[in-house]
Amino acid sequence: MKAPFAPSGAVLYTIPFSHYCEKARWALEYAGVPFEERGHAPAINRFATARFGGTTVPLFVRGATVLADSTDIVALADREASSSDRRLLPDEPDALEDALALEDRFDRRMGVASRAWAYTYFLPEIDKLIPYATQGVPWIQAALLRPMRGALAGVIRRGLRIGPSTREWARTRIQEDLDFVGERLADGRPFLVGDKLSTADVTFAALAAPALFPEAYGGPLPPISELSVAMADEVKRFRDTSAGAFALRIYRQHRRSAERR
Ligand SMILES: N[C@@H](CCC(=O)N[C@@H](CS)C(=O)NCC(=O)O)C(=O)O
Which domains does the chain have, with CATH numbers? Predict the structure, then answer.
């Protein structure tokens, strides 16, 4: 894709609380690739991404380089990592294939399910989400969004096809991926692939975040204390699984520390 109105440096367009954006942001920060984050409010993001021929965020733009998918942004971060220990793609071909297959699985399953599950709780109480959905976005977008929050909830509900059976479906999907990761970790391995952090770990931890609420999340997320009792109970159950505990450990040990946010 060509960038018609490219900004001067590298820019990561985001919806700051989005977990796919968190995956890309984490990879770029971990690799030490310089970029400026430009956050947009949900729905309004399309005005920014359309300029570059994209739709969803994260969208990375640097000169003629336009990357419209988090997996491509992880690959760029890997190519440009400041040192080899900051690379997220394994060198060894079998390990690379394994890590990419896991990344793809979590992109298609956990990322979609955790977002849908969280929205089933947040959409009926959209007021609770607005302070977080508007953090890190231009003030004018925040000002526009507040009075339109009911319409925004409708747009998200229709866009993600959230209906009466969504929570049950999403919970099952999340649990399946937690079980899948738990089985893989059952032999005591410290990472999903090989002996160092890879895109499989980062993608799993970031895309499970809407179900786990890790403290070191790189974007705005409400603390568990602000969730409804029913939602918080479910989060605690997800956190108590071996895969949930693993994602929280990956966050604690490999994401920037909470004080730097
Ligand atoms: N496969 C994409 C998924 C990105 C995605 O679903 N982004 C959502 C935010 S979580 C988005 O942009 N939603 C707003 C929209 O579709 O306009 C990736 O990995 O980058």
Answer: 11-86 (3.40.30.10), 93-260 (1.20.1050)
